[in-house]
C-alpha cells in the first residue's frame, strides 16, 4: 500500500528540487452526532478519521510562500508582505488563509508576529474525499496550521490553531462555518470521539469502544454536490438566529426541551421546526456521550437514527440520496444511521456489526442502482489521532 506521506515527499522533491524539512498531517472528520448545533453554541461529537491531508514543508531563505497540491495541479506563489485574505482565492485560500490567520491578534495574547518569519514551500497530498462532508477543508487547514506553527516556531496552542483554521475558512474562503471541524482535526485521538461544547470551547475525548463491541462505522459518500458557502446553510443559520432573537435568548443553546411549547407559540412554523431540531439534537449529543461511557456504542443506534429524522423533517437539509443510504443501511442490520456533515448532499454514516460490512455494500449499491443514482463510495472509518508532525 502506498502511503500518501511517501507521495507527498516525492512530489515535493520533484516540484521544489530539494528535501522537505518535514511532514505534517491533519485528519478529516466524521461528525458522529450534533449537526447544525455548533453555530448555536451547542454540543457536537465528531471524531478525526484515518484519512489525512499531508503537508510536506520546507522553509526558504526569502519571504515567498509557495503552495502546491496534488488535488489542484497548480503552484501558487505569494510574498508574505502581500498576505491578506482579499488576495486569496480558489483552493489556495485554505492553506494561505491559515498562514494569514496565524498572525491575527484575535488568536490570543500570543497572536503570532509574522513580521520576521521566513517564506516556505508547501506540497499537499490527501486521501480525504473532497466535498463529501468529511471536512477535507479542516484537514488541509490543520495540516498547514501545525506545520507553520512548528517551522515558524510560533508556540501557539491547539485551541489557537483551531481558531486560525476557522478564521481562514470564514474570512479568506468566505464560508461561515463553526469551529467543530478544526477541533476534531486537532484534538482527535485514536479510538475516541471529541466532545466539544461550542460555547466554552472546552473539549474532551470520549471513548467509542467500537472494536470491543464488534461494531464498525461505515461512511456512504453519495458523491452529490454540497457547498457550505451556499444559500441553504446561510438560510438555516439565519433561521436559528431569528429564533433566538424572537425568544430573547443569546442562542438556541439556551433553549431546552421544556421551552419548546412556548417557542411553538411565538415562532412561525418553519422557524420553530429549525429550533426544535437544534434543541433535540443538543439533547441527543449529551445522551450519546452518556450512553457511550455507560453502555458502549451498541446503545446509541436509535439516537443516531433520530438525529437523521430530525435533520430530514425538522431542519430539512437531507437529500433523497442520503435518505436512501440511511434507510437501506437500517434495512440490512445497521443499529443506527444518519446523514453527517452540513447536508444538501455529502455522506451518511451507519453503525453496524463488523460482520455485516459486505452485506451493506451490496444492499446500498443495489438500492442506488435501482433509483438511478450514481454509485456511492463506501468505506469504513476509524477514530484516529489529530493533526501532528508526521516525520
Ligand atoms: P469538505 O470540507 O466537506 O471536504 P469544503 O467545500 O468545505 O468540503 O472544502 C473543499 C475545498 O477545500 C476544495 O474545493 C478545495 O478548495 C479545498 N481542499 C481540500 N482539500 C484540498 C487539498 N488536498 N488540496 C487543495 N485543496 C483542497
Ligand atoms: Mg469543509
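^ Assign residues to that structure.
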Amino acid at each position: 500500500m502506498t502511503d500518501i506521506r511517501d507521495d507527498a515527499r516525492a512530489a515535493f522533491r520533484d516540484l521544489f528540487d530539494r528535501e522537505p524539512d518535514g511532514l505534517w498531517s491533519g485528519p478529516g472528520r466524521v461528525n458522529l452526532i450534533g449537526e447544525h448545533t455548533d453555530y448555536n453554541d451547542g454540543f457536537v461529537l465528531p471524531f478525526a478519521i484515518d484519512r489525512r491531508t499531508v503537508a510536506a514543508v520546507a522553509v526558504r531563505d526569502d519571504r515567498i510562500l509557495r503552495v502546491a497540491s496534488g488535488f489542484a495541479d497548480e503552484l501558487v506563489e505569494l510574498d508574505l508582505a502581500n498576505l491578506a485574505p482579499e488576495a486569496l482565492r480558489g483552493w489556495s485560500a485554505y492553506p494561505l488563509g491559515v498562514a494569514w490567520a496565524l498572525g491575527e491578534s484575535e488568536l490570543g495574547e500570543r497572536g503570532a508576529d509574522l513580521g520576521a518569519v521566513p517564506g516556505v514551500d508547501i506540497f499537499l497530498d490527501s486521501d480525504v474525499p473532497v466535498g463529501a462532508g468529511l471536512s477535507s477543508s479542516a484537514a488541509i487547514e490543520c495540516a498547514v496550521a501545525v506545520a507553520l506553527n512548528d517551522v515558524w516556531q510560533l508556540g501557539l496552542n491547539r485551541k489557537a490553531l483551531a481558531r486560525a483554521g476557522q478564521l481562514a475558512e470564514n474570512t479568506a474562503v468566505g464560508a461561515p462555518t463553526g469551529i467543530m471541524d478544526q477541533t476534531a482535526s486537532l484534538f482527535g485521538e485514536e479510538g475516541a470521539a471529541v466532545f466539544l461544547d461550542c460555547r466554552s470551547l472546552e473539549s474532551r475525548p470520549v471513548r467509542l469502544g467500537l472494536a470491543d463491541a464488534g461494531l464498525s462505522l461505515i461512511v456512504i459518500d453519495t458523491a452529490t454536490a454540497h457547498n457550505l458557502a451556499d444559500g441553504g446553510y446561510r438560510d438555516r443559520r439565519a433561521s436559528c438566529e431569528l429564533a433566538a432573537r424572537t425568544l430573547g435568548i443569546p442562542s438556541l443553546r439556551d433553549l431546552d426541551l421544556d421551552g419548546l411549547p412556548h417557542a411553538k407559540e411565538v415562532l412561525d412554523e418553519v422557524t420553530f421546526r429549525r429550533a426544535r431540531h437544534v434543541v433535540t439534537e443538543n439533547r441527543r449529543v449529551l445522551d450519546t456521550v452518556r450512553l457511550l461511557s455507560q453502555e458502549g456504542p451498541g446503545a446509541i443506534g436509535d439516537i443516531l437514527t433520530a438525529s437523521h429524522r430530525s435533520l430530514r423533517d425538522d431542519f430539512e437539509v437531507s437529500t433523497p440520496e442520503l435518505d436512501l443510504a440511511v434507510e437501506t443501511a437500517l434495512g440490512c442490520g445497521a443499529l443506527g444511521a444518519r446523514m453527517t456533515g452540513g447536508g444538501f448532499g455529502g455522506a451518511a454514516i451507519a453503525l453496524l456489526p463488523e460482520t455485516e460490512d459486505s452485506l451493506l455494500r451490496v444492499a446500498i449499491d443495489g438500492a442506488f442502482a435501482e433509483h438511478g443514482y450514481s454509485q456511492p463510495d463506501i468505506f469504513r472509518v476509524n477514530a484516529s489521532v489529530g493533526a501532528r508532525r508526521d516525520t
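The chain has two domains: 2-205, 210-380.
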